[in-house]
Recover the amino acids of this structure.
């Protein structure tokens, strides 16, 4: 981020892809930046937030849910926020890749070779 930029909170891998999301927030009004997959779906677990916006969103959501965040949907957290979408263009597995099936595990093993 540029010098003097607001502190950011990262969810997901803390590597070069995080730098791309931090850069996407620099100088803009978005509360967070997150990757979108090839089908255009936001990958919220690989997001980087402006810390003040995250805290405000959590507080707002807790108030609407009677003080508790238990079971709160991510869409409730994101309601009304400006989200900057970042396309993934790296090689290998995308930062949001997880292993839900045996085939996913095999693919992950191939990437590590």
């Amino acid at each position: 981020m540029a010098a003097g930029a607001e502190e950011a909170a990262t969810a997901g891998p803390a590597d070069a892809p995080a730098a791309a999301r931090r850069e996407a927030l620099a100088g803009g009004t978005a509360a967070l930046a997150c990757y979108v997959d090839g089908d255009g779906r936001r990958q919220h677990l690989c997001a980087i937030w402006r810390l003040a916006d995250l805290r405000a969103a959590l507080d707002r959501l807790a108030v609407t849910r009677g003080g508790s965040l238990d079971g709160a949907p991510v869409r409730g957290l994101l309601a009304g926020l400006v989200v900057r979408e970042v396309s993934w263009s790296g090689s290998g597995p995308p930062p949001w890749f997880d292993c839900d099936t045996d085939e996913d595990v095999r693919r992950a093993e191939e990437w590590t070779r």
Q: What stands out?
A: Residues 51-64 form the longest helix (14 residues).
